[in-house]
Design a protein that fits this description.
Layout lengths: L1 E6 L4 H12 L4 E6 L2 H9 L4 H16 L4 E4 L5 H8 L6 E3 L2 H10 L10 H14 L9
Helix pairs in contact: 3-4, 5-6
Length: about 140
């Protein structure tokens, strides 16, 4: 099995490598890194169409490189990851997806803390748009 990781910061490579070594022994892992993606999102204050297209291309590249699963480790580009997932034949996961799903399933009031303001909207949208029943819980 092969896991393709897509990062917007090179600093995340050793973090996720250590996590994969600990929790996914025997899984082959490769990394695609492009920090200009997050720099563009920060500069523009949002995910643009052009940057989203590049994210979709990286997900396609990870699939072409042999990934059986793809994890994108940046929440700020989540909308592009959602689009990319519809265009690939392998599962594509946003790093914030499991956390958001668990929060919606178990919480009644949910807060989001993020290191970048550009993460707040994509993560909040993830929680409240994916699970229609959760919309009424939004405070």
């Amino acid at each position: 099995m092969t896991l393709g990781l897509i990062h917007t910061s090179a600093t995340l490579v050793p973090v996720f490598q250590a996590l994969c070594n600990e929790h996914l022994p025997g899984v082959n892992v490769f990394n695609i890194v492009d920090d200009s993606l997050i720099k563009d999102v920060i500069k523009r204050g949002e995910l643009t169409t052009q940057t989203a297209r590049r994210v979709v291309d990286y997900v396609g590249s990870a699939e072409a490189a042999g990934a059986d699963f793809i994890l994108v480790t940046c929440s700020s580009i989540g909308a592009a990851v959602e689009t990319a997932a519809t265009l690939t034949r392998v599962p594509v996961l946003r790093v914030d997806q499991p956390m958001a799903d668990l929060a919606v399933a178990t919480g009644t009031r949910i807060g989001v803390v993020a290191t970048l303001s550009t993460t707040l909207e994509p993560t909040s949208d993830r929680m409240f748009l994916k699970k229609p029943k959760a919309r009424s819980r939004r405070s």
